[in-house]
Give the backbone structure.
Amino acid sequence: MPTDMAERRAAGAAKIMIIRHAEKPAKDGCPPFGVDQDGKADEDSLSPLGWQRAGALTVLFAPARGALQDQALASPRHLFACGAEEKRKRLRPVQTVTLLAERVGTKVDRSFQKGQEVELADHVMGLEAPVLISWEHNNLHLIANRILGDSSTVPQGWPEDRFDVVWVFDQVDGSYQFRQVPQLLLPGDREAGI
């Protein structure tokens, strides 16, 4: 496995995709509330709209029939979600891609936690097949910056109200190129990137 970062990028995954986890509950105990996969109230889980997005993402990345909605996307062979910490469950990132993992026949790797974005980026650049990462919005730019090798290409903040974009990194001639793909899955999804 290449050890130099330039070698790692040159030999890395042909496609890396990053999404923010799906919609979450409102703050301050107001609706919409979070619910687990069984419909029980859970403040650490997705909101009902988030569960709808999780289902729609399954079709976006692995349609049962026909081609992918956008040629910039690919069915992932490796799925990563922000891992749990001692004090926080961090369920939303994994809930967002669990249905997709079942559809493509893989497991969600939760071995990286918030604060390990650089290590995660280094790891996924060493994989061969398409990768999808589901993460919390506050640190998405850290993963992207490491993949690209700079902090000026991607937005350095992810808006609190955006759940509807895929960041795509394609390897071309030994380096990664960045683009944003609007999901356009649910009412209110925007046609523009961040």
